[in-house]
Every structure is written in C-alpha cells, then in structure tokens.
Fold this sequence. Notes:
By secondary structure, the chain is an alpha+beta fold. Helix content is 50%, strand content 20%. The protein folds into four domains: 13-115, 2-Layer Sandwich (Alpha-Beta Plaits); 121-163 and 256-305, Multidrug efflux transporter AcrB pore domain (Alpha-Beta Plaits); 165-253, Multidrug efflux transporter AcrB TolC docking domain, DN and DC subdomains (2-Layer Sandwich), CATH 3.30.2090.10; 334-471, Up-down Bundle (Multidrug efflux transporter AcrB transmembrane fold). It has 16 helices and 15 strands. The strands form five sheets. Strands 5, 6, 13, 14 and 15 form a five-stranded antiparallel sheet that branches. It has a four-stranded antiparallel sheet with strand order 2-3-1-4.
Amino acid sequence: MLPFLGPKQLLPSFKEPYILIQLDGAPGTSHTAMSRIVARASAELRTISGVQNVGAHVGRAVFGDQVVGINSAQLWVKVDAQANYDATVAAIQETIDGYAGLDREVKTYLQQTLSPSSASAGDGFTVRVYGEDHEDLSEEAEKLQQALAGINGVVNSRVDFPVEEATLEIKVDLAAAQVYGIKPGDVRRAAAILLSGLQVGALFEEQKVFDVVVWSTPDVRQSLTDIRELLIATPGGHVRLGDVANVRIVAAPTVIRREAISPYLDILFDVQGRDVAAVTSDIKTTLQNFPFRLEYHAVMLGEQSTQQAAQQRILLAAVVAVIGIFLLLQASFDSWRLAAATFVTLLAALVGGALAAIAGGGPLSLGALFGLLAVLGITARHGVLLISHCRRLEQEGEPFGSGLALRGARERLTPMVMTALTTGLALLPFVIFGDIPGLEVVRPMAIVILGGLVTSILLSLFVTPTLYLRFGARLEPEPSNLPLSTQPSLSSSAD
C-alpha cells in the first residue's frame, strides 16, 4: 500500500465553504492600482453562481503579523452550501486566472494551514540555506544549487529568490565625507529626512491631530539628479549629496524571508529517473561536505523528505501489527499451519477493498485506510468464528472431513451474510450521497468496506473451509503406557 500513500493522497480534498485567494502585484504597484484590481475581481466573483459573499483587503494592517506590501491583497469567497462546489471553485479559479501579471493562488483555509514551510516547493524537494548577509547568502545558495544540480536524478533545480524592485541606494563615500568634516551618520540622517520625512511635532485642530513632517517636495524625490543635488549641512556650509555619497538605483528584494530571525533562501528541485531514497542520501552527503562560510548552513525540507520518514514509521508499525495478528491467530487455533493459512486469507481480503478504493477515487486516502482496517477485522472475525465452529462440531462427534467443512460453512452462512448485509446497508447511503461537504473521509471508507465485504464473504465461505480441511486435522494422542499398579483390573478376585 505504501506506493499509493503521499501527503496529498493521504488527506482528501475537503470541500470547505470559504475560499482564500492571494493576489500579489508586480513590485512598485501602487495601493490605488491594487484596490482597483481587487474591486473589479470582487465584482466578477459575486456574479458567479454559487458564490454567496466576497470580502477583501489590500496591504496589511498597522499591527498585522503578515509581511506583505501594498501590492498584496487577499479575498475571501464564501461558497453557498446548496451550490455545486466543484463547479463553483472551478469558476472562481478561472476568473482569478484571467488576471495576468499577478501572482495568484486559490486555496482553502485547510490547504493553506497544511502547506509546507516553502509553499513554492510544491511536491518537490527543498533545501533551505541560512545566513546573515543577503548578498553572501545569495552567492552561497547559487553555489549549492550548482552542486545539487550535479547529483544524478536532480532536475529543474533553481534558487527561489524573492521578488526584487527598484530601490534607491545611497552609499556614503567615507573619504569625501572626511574632507568636508561630516560624519557618515549625518549624511544618512539628512538623506533619510529629505527622502522619507521626519516627524517633528503635531498640530491639534477641532479634536483632530495632524503630524508635522519635514520632507522634500515630491518632484525632488522622483528625480535621481535632483536627489544628488540635495544640500547636506557641513561645519563650513553646505555640500551636495552627490559629492559625499554614491546615489544610484539598484534591485533589492521586496521581502527578506526569515526563520528564527535568520535570513534564508530556498533551493527547489524535482527528482526523476532515480529512486527517491538514493537521491535523498546523496543530497544529505552533499550538504555535509559542502564548504559553507562561517555562520552559513543548509537543511533539507520538503514534502518528499517528510513523506519518506512517515512511510518508514508506518512500515515499522505495520510489521509489528502483522506479527501481533499472526501470534493471536496461533493462540486461537493452537496451530501454526492453520494460523498461517488464515493469515493469508486476511491479506487476500484486503485486495477487494484496495480495488474498490482505486475504482472509487484513485489513490488510497485516510478514509480508505480506515476502511481497510475495518475489512481486516471483519475478515479475521469471520475466519476465527468459522474455524471455531468447525472444531466444536468435531468435538460433538462430527467426523473430520468434507462433510464437517460443508456443515460448518452452511451453519455460519446466515450469520456472516446478515452481518455483511447489515454493514453494507448502513454504509450504502454514504456511498450514494457521500459526495457532499463534511463526508470526504467517510465516503472512501464506506467504499473500501463494501468492496472488502464481498471478498471477505467469498473467502470465508469457500477458501477458509478448504484451508481447514488441509491444515486443521488434529493428531490424536497415543495411549500412554500406564504402570500396572494404576491400570484397572479386568477380573474380579475371588472371595
């Protein structure tokens, strides 16, 4: 079963009534432009059949915990409970995809919560590089990406750099500042006041507070030449900003991602043409031997790495469970051969449930796994009761043979069929009407149990009696040679 299991297959797609839409405009997009886009998108979403309500916000609140700019927006869409959920979500996705030039993502709240730490990684691998300086971090990430690209099986490797935007950089010329007798901090402070503003007080009028800010005029701030011409106070007068600093436009990241106050960059890649475990081992070896700078390191993340560790734990638990079930069967039958034969039928009964799961929805999900466990328990119960009944008949005088097996199967037919019918009828509504929100786990479980009941009944009625005839014969104990003093006398003594 393990090849069918994955993070996204294990958890079904829940039909949540609230849809979260994330929109990110290009760097430099104004708040006005994003507000206009969001208003238009909200109006289009409200026209979709099945959409009950739409809410949105642009940017972030003053005290918000989200690191986003004014070019970021979120929309919340509530889907009507009576509407066709899949069709409504598809229409929402189609509408949002029509806004070209925006980074857009449509998710439910649960999908967003269960997303990995690097959402851009998707189903692939992620190696996260930690460091201090952003430029050095970018250099280390690019070197490591080239090293990982040389591993057999690694494809589509790339560094997930954050989006960059044009930013004004003012770098003080220390030698020139010393000539004019000013400190580098004075230059930075003066430039910050002229370009970003400095609050120097407040005015109160009609119970309103107005901030007093010292700032340069907008036309000066929008011209690189005018910025260089800004005057900086010196002990001897004034000097132009361009004479004591290098003023230029550079590309800078809009957001510096951090984890535990440490900046990081992600290296994303996929695996093809080679076993995942072997590729993972080579990646870990590369990370251990890579010559990082001091205070720089990398760790491996991603869903595939987590999945591999989870599968190992599942496999270990499955082995322990298999051994426990086999020992319980042996203790019940007091026969290793009969326990082994019955155990094989238990595994064969799971085939019907697995085929039903695949026919009903594809890969095995969490609900399907619960159903397989239920099928395993039902089959074990039928097998144990049938064999126990046959042995009881044998103890009552029924000779061991085909007649015993036929009688045992015939007498257990009604209870097993009634149990299966009762269980099947109880689960049938979930199969027929289970494609509604809230039953995403119950429906696959019901499908698996119904499929497993068919194979369980067939195996219990036709295979288990045959196995009992083959392996269930008991060896009669030989009469013991008792001492003469303890054996009963056949003659009576004469008086």
